[in-house]
Specification:
Layout lengths: L2 H23 L6 E6 L17 H7 L4 E3 L5 E3 L2 E6 L6 E6 L13 H12 L6 H4 L3 E8 L2 E6 L6 H4 L10 H7 L1 H6 L7 E7 L3 E6 L12 E6 L3 H10 L4 E3 L3 H8 L4 E15 L10 H9 L3 H9 L27 H10 L8 E7 L7 H13 L3 E7 L2 H9 L6 E7 L9 H4 L13 H10 L4 H17 L3 E14 L2 E2 L14 E2 L1
Parallel strand pairs: 1-10, 1-11, 13-14, 13-15
Antiparallel strand pairs: 2-3, 4-5, 5-7, 6-7, 8-9, 9-10, 11-16, 12-15, 12-16, 17-18
InterPro entries: Peptide/Ni-bd, SBP_5, SBP_5_dom
Organism: Mesopusillimonas faecipullorum
Pfam families: SBP_bac_5
């Protein structure tokens, strides 16, 4: 065979080998991702509710003006740059990206930003109104530039634009179809479009090819709503879903041994706290509250349920955040707890009775923790009945000041800033505050306008120490997140706890 023929034969054989490889030997990366998720959204209006567990869904469909990175630093997102126009912190120039589109193909502009905040200002039931209450107006300078005006200095404005309820809504679409139709078929400017929704069952998202950050690597994402944690474990173990989140910690070590799965436990920017309703007479006794706090062996709870990953807290802030007070500690001291309880007029022979409310498997080992706390209290003379409650029911009771027991609650603060932590937890005027001391209002107002960052943080630290000394709201543990997923999936995790399929890819 001559040289020319040899080359031709080799080329033909090579082409045939490639065809065989492409047809049967290669495995294309999956284009779909299924996630077992513990909760559904209470509403598809992302500005209407402060719902930490739903932020991952909102960020997939709506994105956010700014974003808190893994070091809890505010970074550009839909707003690519900003600057204060005055020394008082009342006028903030915002520059929007010019390449953002809503899912109907229309561009996102400063008019949409203005519409979003004006809509909230007209309806006090929209949570955005309470999360950024100092916004008084937005001036549209150009299609992609606006000036946000505040009634008083607002040093946390940029962080707030990355926080709960801060999403830009489509003005033209909502005005065209109406509020009710928008809630049934919402559109945003996020990396995924909502293409299917069965309440309490399934959320189907498809990649948006005009997303400013580029079309996501995974074309289709299905969130299966699976409230039961054991069912979420079974779903990922059987291969019915690719990812399961908020699984019991005890299951993580077992799933790590699976040849097909990866699993991990990691701390993130939420904290377990015990919310005290100050309007219930029993909890007005400071000695009782202190006894409740001193009797909790936080490290023991972390060891029992979280493999020592969840960090005990003494103030209403997560470890290492700007709000943390690392040199302050409320120790576990059962004898001192007994002494404080005696000052309140109670003992094991004359116990006080109360209810402890907790969700069950909404967060890893939440109900187990509640029962452990009740047992610790029983050892000093507090008879506690642990009752399961849904997050929706708790919010209903707390927002109407009808909570009649202590609530084991998870507070999300993806900014790490004290204004969005203790500044909201203890603000007596806010609906999600259960400790309502009117004397705190003016003090918190003064701090919320302090533009000197060092002075602002130092003053907040003093309030947090006082809050812990008086047990107005009891910090317990920095929350942890758990996740299990199929091997072969590139799945970054974040200190904020967000589940962001737009950042995932199959290897």
């Amino acid at each position: 065979m001559n040289t020319w023929c040899t080359r031709v034969v080799r080329k033909l054989l090579g082409a045939a080998a490639v065809a065989v490889f492409m047809a049967g030997g290669a495995h294309a990366a999956p284009t779909e991702l299924k996630i077992a998720y513990p909760v559904d959204l209470p509403s598809w209006d992302p500005t209407a509710v402060t719902f930490p567990a739903g932020q991952s869904l909102f960020k997939a469909v709506f994105d956010s003006p700014t974003f808190m990175d893994d070091k809890l630093v505010a970074t550009p997102r839909q707003i690519e740059s900003w600057k204060w126009l005055d020394d008082t912190g009342t006028k903030l120039e915002l520059n929007l990206r010019k390449d953002i589109f809503f899912h109907d193909g229309s561009p996102l502009t400063a008019e949409d930003l203005k519409f979003t905040f004006e809509r909230a200002s007209k309806n006090k039931a929209i949570a955005l109104n309470g999360m950024m209450p100092t916004v008084t107006g937005i001036e549209v300078v150009s299609p992609h530039q606006a000036v946000m005006t505040f009634s008083k200095p607002t040093p946390t404005a940029i962080k707030s634009l990355a926080f709960l309820t801060s999403y830009i809504l489509p003005k033209a679409y909502i005005e065209k179809v109406g509020e009710e139709a928008f809630l049934k078929q919402p559109i945003g400017a996020g990396p995924y479009r909502l293409t299917g929704y069965q309440r309490g069952s399934r959320i189907t998202l498809e990649a948006f090819d005009k997303y400013w950050g580029g079309k996501p690597a995974i074309d289709k994402v299905v969130f299966e709503i699976v409230p039961d944690s054991s069912a979420r474990v079974a779903a990922v173990e059987s291969g019915r879903v690719d990812v399961s989140v908020q699984i019991p910690v005890r299951e993580v070590a077992r799933l790590q041994k699976s040849p097909n799965l990866e699993a991990k436990t990691y701390p993130y920017s939420e904290m377990f706290i015990l919310q005290m309703p100050s309007y219930v007479e029993t909890f007005q006794n400071e000695h009782l509250r202190r006894a409740m706090q001193l009797a909790i062996d936080k490290q023991g709870i972390s060891r029992a349920f979280y493999n020592n990953v969840a960090q005990p807290l003494s103030v209403l802030a997560t470890k290492g955040s700007a709000a943390d007070v690392p040199d302050f500690s409320i120790p576990f001291d059962r004898e001192q707890a007994i002494a404080e309880l005696a000052k309140a007029g109670y003992s094991k022979d004359k116990p006080v009775k109360m209810r402890l409310l907790s969700t069950n498997n909404t967060f890893p080992s939440d109900y187990d923790m509640a029962r452990a706390i009740a047992q610790m209290w029983s050892q000093i003379g507090i008879e506690t009945t642990v009752e399961e409650i849904t997050m929706a029911k708790y919010l209903e009771l707390s927002h109407s000041s009808k909570l009649d027991g202590v609530m084991l609650y998870v507070w999300a603060n993806a900014t790490g800033d004290p204004d969005l932590g203790v500044g909201r937890i203890l603000d007596p005027r806010l609906r999600f505050s259960t400790w309502k001391d009117p004397a705190l209002a003016n003090e918190l107002d003064a701090l919320s306008t302090e533009m000197d960052e060092q002075k602002r943080l130092a003053s907040y630290h003093e309030i947090m120490k006082r809050a812990s000394d008086n047990a107005w709201s009891l910090p317990v543990l920095q929350s942890i997140s758990t996740i299990a997923h199929k091997k072969g999936l590139n799945l970054p995790t974040y200190q904020t706890g967000y589940i962001l399929p737009q950042d995932y890819s199959w290897k």
